Each structure stands twice: as structure tokens, then as C-alpha cells.
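Re: adenosine-5'-triphosphate structure - here you go.
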Amino acid sequence: MNTAFSDAMRAFAPSLPLAVAFSGGADSTALLVACAERWPQQVRAVHVHHGLQAAADDFERQCVSLCAQLNVPLAVRRVQARHAPGDSPEAAARQARYEAFRAAVQQDWAHDAVHDIAIAQHADDQAETLLLALSRGAGLPGLAAMPARWVRDDVTYHRPLLGVPGAEVRAWLAARGVPWVEDPTNADEQFTRNRIRARLLPALDAAFPQFRSTFARSAAHAAQAQELLDEVAAQDLAQAGLPPAIARVQGFTRARQANLLRHWLRRAHGQQPSAAQLQELLDQVAACTTRGHRLRIKVGTGRVERRGEVLDFVPSGEP
Ligand SMILES: Nc1ncnc2c1ncn2[C@@H]1O[C@H](COP(=O)(O)OP(=O)(O)OP(=O)(O)O)[C@@H](O)[C@H]1O
């Protein structure tokens, strides 16, 4: 019974002390309880109070109460995530959450040497992420879905439950009799992710009972292919120069140019060109064969221009 959850926890080997990102919901409650049982005195919890919804205070109360019961030190971080027009509120909240995690590690536990944080996404979340990516026409980085482990700002993040079906996480928790708070927005089918969870996952379960592990395999293939593309892009960019020389870029095949330019814009300027912008940029690079040829194209939050022999990214608002 519940072997997937217990097996995943047994296989989890973070550095200690470990912090758990604790929302008060079922998944992170299960993860926190399991970690606190396994590594007594070595676990911390961080809760981000979003102030986005009326229920935020209930979440915080629940976190304070469970951590007191488990004898786990809790850091509560308050954020007010404002999203720029056109950006999704969930993306802004996620960004604010990671900044809060970093602040907890660097400020609340500065003397505690916490370098690892575990978050509680499971196999259903992974399948939803992949379906969400498909629904948006994502490329390989989106299809790679969520990694089980990654490093950001000197913090190592872990998702130890990524292979465990959501129902097994809840069943493990229910068997312990530990309470959790249900996020009221999870039932709101205005959000695509919630529609996927409520309508698609049950249909997939009925048609392809193994979909969680086969989807995860596809995501892993995509992640591996993307790693390779990043390596190739880094080599090609080193050859093209920074900023990239137009003539050198033209020396690559169109697919490699696309890979190189996407990489340059993302890594050097934090920009994600749309598919249409990238095609336009590639067309203009191909047409750029005379000294006087001008190149100017909107990309992300700015534009790419020709400056002499090289491509230049100019943020919006700059002449
Ligand atoms: N407000 C928060 N404070 C701290 N950690 C959070 C918060 N919200 C989410 N997390 C972490 O990020 C993970 C994914 O968040 P998401 O909102 O997608 O999860 P969820 O399915 O609602 O999970 P849970 O049941 O644990 O809330 C959570 O499992 C938790 O580890």
C-alpha cells in the first residue's frame, strides 16, 4: 500500500539540513511530514504568503500549527506578486515564490547552511505541465516539463515526488490522519491547468492507465534533446561571437541559426521570441547580404537591429 510514495522518499537523498516549500496543501503537507519523520531536527519549512487570495491567512495558520506540532522551524515570507500587463498572474506568483525561497535560505537560515529545498509536485502535476505545454504549442523546453532537480541562485531544488501519482500522495497523508487546507482556486475551471486536471486526467487514466510514466518518459527525452541543443547553441554562439556577427550566423543552417539566436536572446537578454518573430528574424538575416541592408524586428520586450556587422538587442524605450 502506498509503495510509490514510500519508495520515492527512500530514494530521496538531499543534503541536510533540508527545507520544504510548504503551502499547507495536501502534497507539500505529505512531503513535509515524510521529511520530518525521516530527518528529525534537520528539516525546515518555508511558507510564502501570497496575499493574492482571501484564503492566504488560513494557509498560513495551518502551516504554523502543523510546524509547531512537528517541531519544524517555519519561515513565513510575505510577497505581493504584481504581474505586468499581458503576463500571467500565476507566472508572477511563481517568480515571487522563488525569490522568497532564496530570501529564506540567505536571510532566515543564513547561519543554518540550508542549500536544498524540496517542493512537492507529483506525477499528475508533471502530466498536466506537459499537456499545458502542448496546449500552448510549446517547443522542446516546454515539453521537457519539470526537472526532478535543478540549481538556481545557489539553491538546489528537488522534486522527489515527481514519479508518484497524486492519489497516492493523498492516500499516504490520509492514512496518517494529518489535516491540510484545500486551495479553493484548484477547482476553478477558468484556469487551463484545472480543466486539464478535472477533465483530461480522468479520461487519460481510463484510456491509457500508464500515461503518467509514459508522459514522464517523453518529457525526459525532450529534456535530454534540449540539453544537446543548448550545448550546440553555446558552441555556435562562441563561433558567431557576442553579439553575433551576421556573416557568421549566415554560415549555419537555418535550424542551427534558429537554435543559436533563441539561445543568444534567452541567455544574454532574457528574451523569448515568439515563433513568428523568430521566423521573421531568420528571413531578415538571410536577406542581409549588402552593406546598406537594414534589419529591425520586434522581439520579446525590445527589438533586434543590425549594428554594423553584428546583431544587437535593444530593450524597448531605448532609441
Ligand atoms: N505558498 C507557498 N509557499 C510555499 N511553497 C509553496 C507555495 N505554493 C506552492 N508551493 C510549493 O510548490 C509546489 C507546487 O505548487 P502548486 O501550487 O503547483 O502545488 P499544489 O498542487 O497546490 O501543491 P500543494 O498541495 O502542496 O499545495 C507545492 O507542492 C509546494 O511545495
